[in-house]
Amino acid sequence: MMSDELYVSVDVETSGPVPGIYSLLSIGACLVSEPAQSIYLELQPDGLKHDPEAVAVTGLELSKLESEGLPPQVAMLKLEQWLTQVCSVGQKVVFVGLNAPFDWSFINYYFHKYTGANPFGFTAIDMKAYYMGVTGCRWKETKSSQMTARLNPHSAPNHNALDDARFQAELFALMLAEGPSR
């Protein structure tokens, strides 16, 4: 039986802490149920402001993205098209992120700025909060390293948006398996 919800793990790399001031630099997204079904996009910065430490963490070069990255509108339209392709009729795409408020804020802002609407709607599943619910742990125990120690995923995060989206998908699938039956 097909679920009426399609969980999509999304990770982003950015040039700073908030959208509208800083740029979305890369997007990785994959299906939680099938991480090989994925998309990876690198974007041209849509502004000059950046936090050098944030950019260094990404491993991306702003000058290279300026010349080789996709214009933000093209990138968001490609992401929207991919979501349409992987989502069956009658399914709702559900944004899943590890620290979803951060990643979702950039995706939401860019979708609204460049396409007019966010296909994910105005909600997301935050894996940290979900993990608290499944395990009964405290907020300070929701670091990905602590989740990894408990759930034993095969993959690991590395600040590549697609690799991190796949890592998150694996972690979330393990959380779903550990949680109460639905």
Short description:
The protein is α/β, with parallel strands linked by helices. The protein contains 7 helices and 5 strands. It has one domain: Ribonuclease H-like superfamily/Ribonuclease H (Nucleotidyltransferase, domain 5, 2-Layer Sandwich).
Compute the number of strand runs: 5
What share of the residues does DSSP label as strand, in percent? 15-25%
pLDDT under 50 segments (min length 5)? none
- CATH fold description: Nucleotidyltransferase, domain 5
Question: How far apart are the termini?
Answer: 13 Å
Overall structural domain count: 1
SSE run? EEEHHHEHEHHH
CATH architectural group:
2-Layer Sandwich
Across the major sheet, the strand order is 3-2-1-4-5
Helical percent range? 40-55%
Relevant CATH superfamily? Ribonuclease H-like superfamily/Ribonuclease H
For the CA atoms, what is the radius of gyration? 16 Å
Number of helices: 7
- What's the CATH first level? Alpha Beta
Give average pLDDT, whole number.
Answer: 94
What sort of overall outline do the alpha carbons produce when their principal axes are compared? globular
Largest sheet, described in full?
5 strands, mixed
Fold blueprint:
Layout: E1 5-14, E2 24-31, E3 38-42, H1 52-58, H2 62-68, H3 72-86, E4 92-97, H4 100-114, E5 125-126, H5 127-135, H6 144-151, H7 161-178
Parallel strand pairs: 1-4, 4-5
Antiparallel strand pairs: 1-2, 2-3
Helix pairs in contact: 3-4, 5-7
